[in-house]
Structure formats: C-alpha cells, structure tokens
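INFO batch 0412 | record 1 of 1 | parsing
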Amino acid sequence: MLAKSYGSAVHGVDASTITIEVNVGQGTKFFMVGLPDSAVKESEQRVESAIKFFGYHMPRQKVVVNLAPADIRKEGSAYDLPIALGIIKASGQGQLGELEKYVVMGELSLDGILRPIKGALPIAIQARKEGFKGFILPKENAYEAAIVDNLDIIGVETIAEAVDYLEGNSDIQPLDYDTRDLFYHNQDNYAADFADVQGQENIKRALEIAAAGGHNVIMIGPPGAGKTMLAKRLPSILPPLGLQEALETTKIHSVAGKLGTDTSLIAVRPFRAPHHTISDVALVGGGGIPQPGEISLSHNGVLFLDELPEFKRTVLEVMRQPLEERKVTISRAKISLDYPANFMLIASMNPCPCGYYNHPDKECVCPPGGVQRYLNKVSGPLLDRIDLHVEVTPVSFDEMTADRKSESSEEIRNRVIKARETQSERFSGSNEVYNNAMMNSQMTKQVCAINASGKTLLKTAMEKLGLSARAYDRILKVSRTIADLAGSDTISIEHLAEAIQYRSLDREGWAG
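INFO prediction complete | emitting tokens
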C-alpha cells in the first residue's frame, strides 16, 4: 500500500515542499531513496522505536521511503515524523485521513516524543503559499509558525498526538495567537537606555548621526571609556522594526535555530556581538550544512565587533563584500544560497596595544611604531566602509556623579525617525537605497551638493588634516545626515565641519 505525507527542505531562508512516499509491499528490507543524508537515513531506528512505544509495529515487509524530488539533498532529522506517519498509514495501522492536507515535520526521540526543529517559519510560509490546510510540528515551534495566518498550526508533543489528531480523535485546536499585537507591544522592549549614560555627549551625538543615516561606526578609546556600554544602546535609538523587516529577521533566526520556544515574531532590532576568536565561516555563514552567520543574524540590526584589531585578518576581510552588497552568497558545487545581511557595523578598539595612546592622564608605554602596527591590523579597505571614526575619552568623576538627567533613547529615537522619514521621501524612487549610507557615488553627487564656501572648507580640511581621498564621499554622506537631523534642505558649512571631525583614522600623523 502506498501513502504520501509532506515535509519541507530549507535552503537559505526559503523552503521547498518535499513529498514523502512510503510503499509497503512484498519483501523484507527497508529502503530509503531520494538523496537523504546520514541523519535522515538513521531515522529508521528512531521511527521503529518511537512507533513501538505507542503500540504500533514496524512492518516486517519491504518498506520503500522516497523523498521527492529525488535530486534535492535532504538534510537533518526533522523528516522522522512524516516518515513515521507514512509508515503507519501505508501498513494499514491507521487511516490518517487528512495526512495529505498537512505539512508535517519533527524529530522523534526513541520514546516517541517530538524534539524542536529549525526553520519552522519559512516552512509555514511555504505551506500557506502552496495551499496546505495546516502544519503539524513539535509544540516548542508552534508559536514561531503561528506568525503565518490562514494556516492551522497544530503543535503536538508525541507521535500518538499527531495520529489522534489526523484520525479526528483529538481535541487539539489550531494555535490562535495574535502575534502582531504582541509584536507592537514589545517594540520598545530594550534593556539598555541612553538615559543611564552620564557624560559622553559627543559620542551620543555621533551614534545619533549613525542611526539617522545607517552609517557604520568605529570607536577608538582607552579601556573603560564606555565604548561597549554605548554600543549596546545603539539599537534603542534605531527606528522600530516594521512588520516586513521583523518577518525577514525572524526567518533568519528560525533557520539558524536561534528562536526560543516561547518566541514568535522578533520585535526589536537584533544586536550581535561575536567574540574576536570567531572563524570567518561563523561570521559570514556557510559550513557543511550551510547556515547563516553572525552578519546575517544581525540583519536589520547591529553587529558589534569589540576589540576590532584582535579579530583575525581573514575574518575581517570577508565582511568587505557584504558591507557593500547587503547580502551574503554561499556557493557550493550544486547549490548557491543568499542570506540577507543588511546590518549596521559598530566596532570598537583601543588606540594601541597598551590602550593609553592619546590618554589625557596616563602615558602610553608602547614601543616606537607599536601604535601604527596595531592600527595596521585593520585594513584600509575595511576602514573605507566605516563612515564615522569617533574618539572616546574617559568620563571624569564630576560627570559621572552629576545630577543632570541624560537624554533618553526615546527622545533621540524620535529625531532619528524624523531624519529617516526625510530620507525615505528622498529615495522613494529607488528600491535598493533607503538611507544616506547606501548612496552610490552618482547619488552622492546629486544629493550632497555643496556651495563654494563648503568646497573651500572641504579642500582646506583635506589638505591641512591630510585626509585621504576615500574620506571625501564619507564626509559628504555624513554631512547630509547631519543636515537631515537639523531639518535643513541644504548642506551648510556647520554640517560639513561636524562631519570632518569624524574621520580620525584618516588623518596623517594620528598614530604618531
């Protein structure tokens, strides 16, 4: 007897439907075909133990399981449940009348309990797209899949519950969960706030500019100056996630298995801070079974690289292309996957190995040339993609103990949102550019026009401060963002002057 069930294979951040055909006939062996990997092949032992635990039996006949289409590689253990249900139906142990109306996924333990899977959200999206009635999956993944409307999400804990539901003997109801209401409720749920930061007004201003224009930032300063503390608060002043952005972000975290069991739609912008021992594959994505890396997990959020020169050079260099293209392409012999990677990079570093170069109170003890060698660990092409270079100085005791109330993240975010709205109107005709940092050279010339006095100031700055040619476009983009924050249609000398000061690492002689 032949039975069909349906599962799904996740490639990149999208899913494709897999038909699981089970045929029980004359013979004695178990066969699995359709390009299964080792984890899928091993399902025979898990399935046999799981169905026996609930009183069913493994047919002592020839069992052929085909995973179609047969030319797509099937990976992982999430095909256990559809294979088991197919065997139960094909061997006549259960009717499972509506099995073919559902997508079914889940890993089985030996006692028939279901373990959570990766990629529940893209699977649910594809199931709705193809007109399936519902999605049967482990209960731990139900909230994640419930983001998708017009699809019955059936969370089960054991294979017996799945059988009972399909035979109409269960009172399990499709999960009814208002994810959008919870999403809007949690949009401002940030643990850190700029109101907690005393002093550092110039750094707050630089981060506000970065948030308003989507610019990348590097902070240079001695240990304990507050670089990490400030970086962690950057997501709290970015514009709130839109529903489409939240869905894109949640899909990536779903594929990577990073969503909690009680998590549905990600409501706040992600903040990822990998350690400097990270490998290039872990940062950019890939591996034997391709998975999104840290830069994709930072999509629509912030990637924070603390102690930037301590990262391996090869790790930093793989970021250059994603910073420009806003996506990562993982190529293999038979497949090419795209992962979104539209993130803001914020990096921090000490100015030298000892950390006290240019410190107002402490003396640098690094040997001659040590500062320059330390800075050279970060390549010029990478610095070229960072718009703001900000020097962070330690906070004085008087500033730390002052009673003055600092500006909250909400107040700063309101100004950022207003500036972003201006940019949205400006780039409304483009599908690929929606903030100032994303402008190409041609757009920069059109949008960032400056008058004669502005050109004179910029020329003088480049000559006097020894700014490199790569700083020119960056200064214009940042000055345009500063003008947007000020509500100005044109870039004035004041806007240019402020932008020029954010190019510390381009100045000749900065490192001695």
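INFO post-check: DSSP finds 22 helices and 18 strands in the chain.
INFO record closed
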